[in-house]
Design goal:
6 helices, 4-stranded antiparallel beta sheet, single chain, Rossmann fold, globular, alpha/beta, 5-stranded parallel beta sheet
Length: 220
Amino acid sequence: MSETNRIGSIRLSGMLPKVFVNEPAGDSQVWKSDVEFRRGEHWLIEAASGAGKSSLCAYIYGTRTDYVGHLMFDSRDAASLSVDEWQSLRRTNIAYLPQELALFPELTALENVRLKACLADGRGDDAILAMMRELGIDSRADYPVGRMSIGQQQRVAIIRTLCQPFDFILLDEPVSHLDETNNRIAASMILREAERQGAGIITTSVGNPLLIDNLRRVRL
């Protein structure tokens, strides 16, 4: 990707889910505030259940638009993006791991990752299998995802998210089903790939955060 096509910052200005508009103001550092996530920085959004963290991720990824306020990619308001522009952004600028994982259960682990890599012109099989070995699921590469444990599925989804180009990697509770050892391995892989691409990390947690040191923390 050329530098001119990269996203340097994601800025939220006065954003709030429409469902929260008539509720009392809370102490969020994100909703109804001005927050800027810059490429190369690493952020943790801490939230209680029901505070809207998955909604925020969906807004940034463009799969939901039921908010008030403004979401800006550099100087461009997300509300002005066309369908084609959103598709391009998801292929080359923003990698997203949703909390529900969104894997295809009938496909194997390798097929799930390969599908995303092909669509985004991303990593090849050798790199994908190396990541699977690092996370201890290489022996399950040819297993249907639907037959894998939720922790194994989460590791597949992490690898799928890492296999594409990105300026920001958006991770919604990425290690909620991982023990500390696999959390640290996943965190190391995510940090390494983000640094390789000069990308920003935005991760959420309700109590089991991604174990990356010196994350900038904001409360949702």
